[in-house]
Design a protein that fits this description.
Rossmann fold, six-stranded mixed sheet, alpha/beta
C-alpha cells in the first residue's frame, strides 16, 4: 500500500464564489462579511477510489487530509433484499456505517461519526500541538475519542451529562483524551456553549463542526461508497438529521459526481428526518423559512430529553447559512419528515428482522421516514434509493466484550462562568 500524500485542493466561499488557498485550519472565509460555508475544490476532478485496504482514505482524493491515520474503515454499501421486500422497493441500497463484520463493516464505535473523526484528524498536521475541542451529543465524541486516543492527539470533549452513557469503548483510552460535561438537564447546546468557553485560549483549537470541510467531506464518503457500489447517483437519499451536516455533505458529494460526468447529471432528492417533538428544522422547512423559528430554551431541553434519538437534538444546526441544509433541500427538491419514538422503535425492529443487525435510534428515524415516503407514494417502487444507516451493530459488537466507559473529569453547572471553565480545563492539560 502506497503512502498517502497530502490532498491538493483550494477553498471556495459558496456565497461569494471567492476561491482561495487553505493556509492552515481555515473554517470561515477570512474576507467574508456574511456567514457562509466554504467548500473544498479538489485538484482531482474524477472519482477514483483507492483499494479497500486504505479504509476511509480510499476516498482521500476528495478528503482535505495531510496524512493517513491508523484504524479507519469506510462505510459499506449493499443492495437490500429483506427490507426492500418489506417496503416494496426494487432498488434499495443500504449504506451501513457501524459494526457488521458479515458485510465487511468494521467501525468499532458503531457510528458514521468515525468518517468525520478520521478526516478531521487527518487534516491536522503531525506537528499540531494544540488541543482539539469537540462538543457532541454522544456518537461524535465516541468517534473522536477513539481516533485521538489511538493516534495520541490531545482532545477535549464536551458532552451533556445525560448522554455520557454513549461514551463506551472496547479498551481504556489514552490520557490525551479528556471529557467535561454539562450537568444533568443540559443538552447539546449547553455542551457547545461550555466548550466554546475554552477557545479564548490559543492552546485550544475549535474543531469547527459543519464549517470544517474535513467533517463534511468525511461524511460525504457515505455517498461515495454508494455510488462506487451502485455505479450511478441514487434518485433518493434518506437520513435522520440533528445538524443536517451529513445531508449537506451528501449534496456536495453529489455535485462533485455530476462534475465528473460518469455517474449521472441528476441530484438526489434529500429526504431528511427528525425525531418528534424535537423538530426545529422540520418546523422551519414546513414554514418555508430559511431562519429557524423561535424555540424556548427550556422547552428545547425538555424536547431533547423526550426523544429517543438524542443525537438529533441540535438547537443551532447549519440550516439557514449559505450552503447549509436549507439550500441543499431547495436545490434537490428535498423534504424534512417527522418521526415519533414509537415509529422509530418499530422501524428498528423491522430493520433487525429483515437485515439481521441492530441499528441506532437515529437510523431508525431514517428507516421510518423511508417507510412513510413509500407509503405516501413519494418514492416509486423502481427508484434507486440510498438509505444512510448512520449507526448500528452495537449489540453485535458488544457480544462477549467487556466495555469501558469514559467518565467526565469535570461536570459544570449550566450557569458556570467562562473564566471558571477555562481555568479548570487548562488545569486538566497542565
Amino acid at each position: 500500500m502506497e503512502a498517502l500524500k497530502a490532498t491538493a485542493y483550494r477553498l471556495r466561499n459558496v456565497a461569494t464564489n471567492r476561491l482561495f488557498d487553505d493556509t492552515g485550519w481555515i473554517i470561515d472565509d477570512p474576507q467574508a462579511d456574511k456567514p457562509a460555508l466554504v467548500r473544498a475544490e479538489y485538484a482531482q476532478k474524477q472519482f477514483q477510489p483507492k483499494g479497500k485496504e486504505y479504509g476511509l482514505y480510499r476516498f482521500a482524493d476528495w478528503l482535505p487530509v495531510q496524512r493517513m491515520l491508523e484504524g479507519s474503515c469506510a462505510p459499506v454499501t449493499y443492495r437490500s433484499e429483506g427490507l426492500a421486500r418489506a417496503l416494496g422497493l426494487k432498488n434499495l441500497y443500504i449504506t451501513f456505517s457501524g459494526y457488521y463484520p458479515e458485510i465487511g463493516a468494521q467501525m468499532t464505535t458503531c457510528s458514521f461519526k468515525e468518517t468525520e473523526a478520521y478526516s478531521v484528524c487527518g487534516r491536522l498536521g503531525a506537528d499540531n500541538d494544540r488541543i482539539l475541542v469537540v462538543a457532541s451529543a454522544g456518537n461524535t465524541a465516541r468517534a473522536f475519542a477513539k481516533v485521538c486516543s489511538e493516534n495520541r492527539i490531545p482532545l477535549l470533549l464536551s458532552v451533556p451529562e445525560d448522554n455520557i452513557g454513549a461514551l463506551w469503548f472496547e479498551k481504556p483510552l489514552n490520557d490525551c483524551v479528556k471529557l467535561i460535561a454539562a450537568q444533568k438537564g443540559g443538552d447539546y447546546f449547553d455542551a457547545i456553549r461550555i466548550s466554546n468557553m475554552v477557545l479564548s485560549s490559543p492552546r485550544f483549537l475549535a474543531e469547527g463542526g459543519a464549517k470544517n470541510i474535513a467533517r463534511r467531506d468525511g461524511m460525504s464518503t457515505t455517498v461515495l461508497s454508494a455510488v462506487d457500489h451502485i455505479g450511478r447517483i441514487p434518485d433518493f437519499y434518506f437520513q435522520a438529521v440533528g445538524s443536517g451536516t451529513g445531508a449537506i455533505a451528501a449534496w456536495e458529494a453529489n455535485l462533485r459526481l455530476i462534475a465528473d460526468g460518469r455517474f449521472g447529471t441528476h441530484k438526489m432528492r434529500l429526504m431528511v428526518s427528525q425525531n418528534t417533538p424535537f423538530l426545529p428544522m422540520y418546523k422551519a422547512w414546513q414554514a418555508d423559512s430559511r431562519a429557524l423559528l423561535p424555540y424556548d430554551d427550556d422547552q428545547a431541553r425538555r424536547d431533547a430529553e423526550t426523544i429517543l434519538a438524542k443525537v438529533l437534538s441540535n438547537r443551532q444546526p447549519p440550516y439557514g447559512i449559505a450552503g447549509g441544509l436549507y439550500d441543499a433541500l431547495k436545490d434537490t427538491q428535498g423534504d424534512v419528515l417527522a418521526v415519533t419514538n414509537e415509529e422509530l422503535t418499530a422501524a428498528q425492529r423491522l430493520f433487525e428482522e429483515t437485515e439481521g443487525v441492530d441499528i441506532y435510534s437515529a437510523a431508525g428515524v431514517a428507516v421510518s421516514s423511508l417507510q412513510a415516503a413509500v407509503k405516501a407514494g413519494t418514492v416509486p417502487a423502481d427508484a434507486t434509493v440510498m438509505l444512510n444507516v448512520t449507526g448500528g451493530g452495537e449489540k453485535r459488537f458488544g457480544r462477549d466484550k467487556q466495555l469501558w466507559y469514559l467518565k467526565p473529569a469535570i461536570v459544570f453547572p449550566l450557569d458556570v462562568t467562562a473564566d471558571k471553565v477555562l481555568s479548570d480545563v487548562s488545569a486538566l492539560f497542565a
